[in-house]
Predict the 3D structure of the following.
Amino acid sequence: MSDAPAAVGTCLTCAYDLRGLSSHVCPECGRPFDSEIPATMEPIDGTPLKPVYRFATAKVGWPMWFITTIWFAAIVWYARYPACVRGEFPTYRFLFPLLFWIWGCRLIVQLFLKTCSRDREYRRRIRLIPATAVSMATIALAIIVRGEVISGLAMAISRPALLRIGNRLKDEKDPAHAKHWAGIYRIEGGQVNADLGIIALFSADADATFQNNNGHCEWNSGHVAWVSINAAE
């Protein structure tokens, strides 16, 4: 006859359902437990813990927080371009959907189980704060990006450098295809158009246009492949 412990709870570390196991060790994380000592487990009643409950009650580990931080940083980096440009980056198009899918789905599942589960212990273990915080931050960032706040700040920061590089090209102090960082934009060469009175600086990273209007560099609403700086500046 097997002396397997009659597991009556879940693992204190990873919330794995310990019922019906043939050992005294959690197979998920390796934490030992004793069915005769309630303090070594989280007490729980009802049916065995289903994967959806494990997903809803599991703690968010540091790898997920690290990946989420990288996601947010990547969105901010791409958002230095306006919508007509950043949409051309394949990677950017997947960043927001992935964030909403992973964290939004987690929050929806948690809210559903928190509301509908009959097991008080399950409901108590569900922590809504991480998924709620990330979901709200994602929505806030989406509003900021859509309002072109980040691209506006990026242009304000980069405008002096763009004008300076344009003037150096006009004065023939730089080769036509030299690469430069202009603030937080990378420029790859350019050309002077004396007829239009502009200096075209080619973007090294995207099909984009900076259109200068009386010394104020702004994004052109059209999809063209250069950056324009007024030759008179």
About this structure: Residues 3 and 22 are 8 Å apart (CA to CA). Residues 1-7, 211-217, 220-226 have pLDDT under 50 and may be disordered. DSSP finds seven helices and eight strands in the chain.
